[in-house]
Design goal:
Length: about 350
């Protein structure tokens, strides 16, 4: 699943006064997860903000940053009344769960001890992990809101250990302002992150400081991390085959889900083998390929391909000096199938 970017209409943990205007900018750019906090605007304004987020086709988030019990209860009730999709933050699960149970709202409380405003995450990694485990064990808790960058502990380790300890999604909130931090969050296994202040104050690395440029830069960086923008450029087979000479040593030229595109040069005869579960496609780019089967031979000419189903014994032979072959097969495929010998290649280069 891709990393989720949640744009918070907040600065220094308070909902900004011009939230409605910033919301329109975000919706126009295609931001699909948008939130605000329980502090900064009166509830009727938060209500219309929530309506506008949902009318724009986005998912809405309310993050509780109030520290005292009474305010947290008021905020949880407000979240249900406003009709937000996801309630982030807060620490008093025993008080909040009875309020949100029965609503369609999803609840992501803070693990660990929170203090101050803007909020700080206290405690050791071990303590925060224990808190995370206890919270996610509760029915009605859908995930966690981790204030990782507000902790004095090692942040990547903290996120990684919390994500590894729980089986529910973890969103990382607070003080994320660079693509490097977003990459850390993604690598550590989090499901999403929030950015508010950095984008509203023009602090995220982008060509301009205005909110539109800031959000566009964040969306682009997240898309790259999520591989929604292809990192690959087109490949020319003739030049790719021109870059190596060794034979029977496939190179990985690309990947499609679990399937790999491999380039190999064949010379002479290979070995008889079969693959337990992998089907293989051989497309001849140059030369002629003889595919020997136990019951027949097939000659595959340039521009032709053959699929060898799993379980079928085969032995490829280059009929000309060398034969250039494009192969398409699952990434688990070993070139010699179920047998291992001197022709087996386990570490494939890139081609
Ligand atoms: Ni094979």
């Amino acid at each position: 699943m891709g990393l989720r970017f949640i744009f918070m209409l907040t600065r220094n943990d308070r909902t900004v006064e011009d939230a409605s205007k910033q919301l329109q900018t975000a919706l126009r750019l295609g931001v699909r997860h948008i939130g605000f906090k329980d502090i900064g605007l009166p509830i009727d304004q938060l209500k219309s903000l929530n309506q506008a987020i949902k009318a724009g086709g986005a998912t809405s988030y309310l993050e509780v940053v109030s520290l005292d019990r009474e305010s947290e209860i008021v905020s949880a009730k407000a979240a249900v009344e406003i009709g937000v999709d996801i309630l982030l933050g807060g620490t008093r699960v025993d008080d909040v769960l009875p309020i949100v149970t029965g609503s369609s709202l999803q609840y992501f409380p803070f693990p660990g001890r929170i203090s101050g405003h803007p909020s700080v995450l206290e405690g050791t990694i071990g303590e925060i992990v224990e808190s995370a485990k206890a919270l996610t064990a509760r029915d009605g808790v859908h995930g966690l809101d981790l204030l990782a960058y507000r902790s004095r502990e090692d942040v990547p380790t903290l996120i990684r250990q919390v994500c590894a300890a729980v089986s529910k999604p973890v969103y990382v909130a607070g003080s994320i302002d660079t693509p490097e931090r977003i990459a850390v969050v993604k690598d550590a296994g989090a499901a999403g992150f929030t950015i508010g202040t950095a984008a509203l104050d023009g602090k995220y690395p982008a060509p301009e400081k205005d909110v539109s440029s800031q959000l566009a830069a964040i969306l682009r960086d997240v898309a790259t991390l999520n591989r929604h923008i292809s990192p690959f450029q087109k490949k020319n087979l003739t030049s790719a085959f021109g870059r190596f000479n060794d034979t029977w040593s496939p190179r990985i030229a690309g990947q499609i889900n679990d399937m790999q595109i491999k380039l190999a040069k064949f010379s002479g005869e290979f070995v008889w083998h079969f693959h337990k579960s992998e089907d293989e496609l051989f497309l001849v780019h140059k030369g002629r390929l003889l595919m020997k089967f136990r019951d027949r031979d097939e000659i595959i000419e340039e521009g032709e391909f053959i699929v060898v189903p799993h379980g079928v014994e085969h032995c490829p032979v280059a009929l000309d000096d060398t034969c250039e072959v494009v192969m398409l097969e699952p990434s688990t495929t070993l070139n010699t199938g179920t047998t291992r010998n001197e022709r087996t290649v386990t570490e494939l280069g890139r081609g």
